Amino acid sequence: LFAGETEFLKGVVAMNGLPDADRLEVCFAGRSNVGKSSLINALTGTKGIARASNTPGRTQEINFFTQGPELYLVDLPGYGYANAPLKVVEQWQKLLKRYLSGRQNLRRAFVLIDSRHGVKAVDAEIMKLLDSSAVTFQCVMTKADKVKEKDRAKVLEQVKDALSKHPAAYPEIVLTSSEKGDGIATLRSIIANL
Ligand code: GDP
Question: A single Pfam family, by name (predicted)?
């Protein structure tokens, strides 16, 4: 599945712009700066590909990447920007809701959580949205290299506790470091097994 090339397909701002639901699809969600672009880059081994999602103007779009001919990787807009205007937030929430509830080839959402910070209120909001859309989601801890062993355990407990409140949560948590490469192969095989 990951042998093929990764290419940016398109940024979508409305439901009618979605590509055909003709292949396996997984999406990635997370607070801005959680390490989403770095993770997608590490996952695909394509440096700089997910940077497209972080360029101004692209940040409110749902960005589609083709990974070979059989897989779409979808980069959802980062949430939790301090200064985003309410109208913009409302608009992308509406699009996000529609996308999540209407996309039949979407097999799993990966919700990225910073290993240092655990689940924040905005993350819980997204999880609620995934619950109500019946999209199974799995937590991916990012920047694992930035925390000490003992602190990591504490955060993991907090994450597990948060997940127990969400019916759509898949219980296995994936620890990753895009910097060191930890957990990347695991995440690839999780996707390949869907
Ligand atoms: P995004 O806004 O969620 O796409 O976040 P980025 O991928 O742009 O990463 C935000 C910052 O965190 C950047 O400075 C990255 O270099 C850094 N970062 C991302 N992943 C890791 C990681 O696994 N380890 C470390 N130490 N830093 C990371």
Answer: MMR_HSR1
